[in-house]
Amino acid sequence: MKGFNTLSVHAGELRDKRFGNIITPIFLNATFLTPNDTDNAYIDKISGKPFLYTRNGNPTIQALEEKYASLENAKYGLSFSSGMSAISSSLLSILKNGDKVLTIYELYGQTLNFFLNLLPNYGVKVDFISIDKLNELDMISEKCKLIYVESITNPKLKVADLESLGKLTKDLGIYLVVDATFASPYNQRPLEFNASISIHSGTKYIVGHNDVTIGFASFNSEELYKTIAEKRKMFGGVPDPLQAYLALRGMKTLGLRVERQNYNALEVAKFLENHSKVKGVYYPGLQSSPYFSIAKRVLKGFGAVVSFEVKSEECATKVLKNVKVIQAAPSLGGVESLITRPVDTSHSSIPEEIKKALNITPELLRLSVGIEDVEDLIEDLDKALSSCA
Ligand SMILES: Cc1ncc(COP(=O)(O)O)c(C=O)c1O
């Protein structure tokens, strides 16, 4: 495998010497010449034939998927209209009536909704356990067909032990599906731990500029790739070529951005840990984190997201209002630092009992650290925290 940044820049690019183009063109075509009996017609890798219709395949989207797969060190990659489309299309392609799934409580809200409220309608039984229990590996039976996990959870930044889970699911011969959105392919590549599918909300780090909604999945199994590509055609959740182009462009700087974010976030987490107005900090890169030793084994860097609790709900409101460089908004992984209160945003629709069990309180803030100068971010947070009593 060539270096991550070399692949980010060059892998997958559709360069044609007849034009001499360096950058992949945007093929804004819904449809293509068919039949196309041109010699050396460019081939859609999914169908093995010339391109036919963009919902089935498109040259810009194919370039994007090749670049993405190379960054995941995967044989195959697919892109989707959103992260949720990647999750729902992948799972609905594999699961059927009578199957059992094991997953964690700490899921992203809409994914939790999908497991709680949609899969059971199709006869799929879903068992939930805490990520800590899953890491202990004593709850898993070969009777379940699939384990679904988020490699770093939101908003408490708990880390899944993919090393152990990958070994175990391989031994049991069951699927391991990992949403690695909070890690990014720079910090973690789940297929290297034997995951069957790695999934990303590309809306976050991969695109990195808070301007595109997109999703990705990667595989080493040709069968999974073909099955899910076929279902994507049926469900219709492909990105459009313009969206694909913007994602392709954002991806070129993924390694540079995430390296800087890893550094900035660790500095910010250390600052918050020592701040008198802060009650607790959640960041797997802190030595005080209970997930530090797992994180060191399964992550190259600890990511951009730092959550912290302040002393009162009122203080949390003041911080959101008084930050100036940092913007109060949900989402994460982009170049801009964003701060949000999970109870108002990502966790607003999570069932109360789960929110309570996970201890997600109105005093909890989640910060996604961008690529700004870290001194400015620390100064901004310090000033905003100083408005608290
Ligand atoms: C961990 C995780 N998975 C999936 C999603 C869904 O992604 P999208 O918003 O691109 O559909 C999100 C969105 O925030 C997320 O945080």
Please specify the SSE layout and strand pairing:
Layout: H1 4-10, E1 43-44, E2 49-50, H2 59-71, E3 76-80, H3 83-94, E4 100-104, H4 109-118, E5 125-129, H5 131-136, E6 146-150, H6 162-172, E7 175-179, H7 184-187, E8 197-201, E9 215-219, H8 222-235, H9 241-251, H10 254-273, E10 278-282, H11 292-298, E11 305-310, H12 313-322, E12 327-328, E13 338-340, H13 352-357, E14 364-368, H14 374-386
Parallel strand pairs: 4-5, 4-6, 6-7, 7-8, 12-13
Antiparallel strand pairs: 1-2, 3-9, 8-9, 10-11, 11-14, 13-14
The structure holds pyridoxal-5'-phosphate.
CATH topology-level name of the largest domain: Aspartate Aminotransferase, domain 2
Mean pLDDT: 96
User: Helix count, per DSSP?
Assistant: 14
| Count of DSSP strands | 14
CATH architecture assignment name of the largest domain: 3-Layer(aba) Sandwich
Please tell me what the overall shape is.
globular
Class computed from helices, strands and strand pairing: alpha/beta
Using the CA coordinates, give the radius of gyration: 21 Å
Q: Measure the end-to-end span.
A: 53 Å
Low-pLDDT stretches: none
Helical amount:
25-40%
Largest sheet geometry: 7 strands, mixed
Strand content: 15-25%
Order of helices and strands: HEEHEHEHEHEHEHEEHHHEHEHEEHEH
Strand order of the largest sheet: 3-9-8-7-6-4-5
What's the CATH H-level homologous superfamily of the largest domain? Type I PLP-dependent aspartate aminotransferase-like (Major domain)
Bound molecules: pyridoxal-5'-phosphate
CATH level 1 name of the largest domain: Alpha Beta
Tally of individual domains: 2
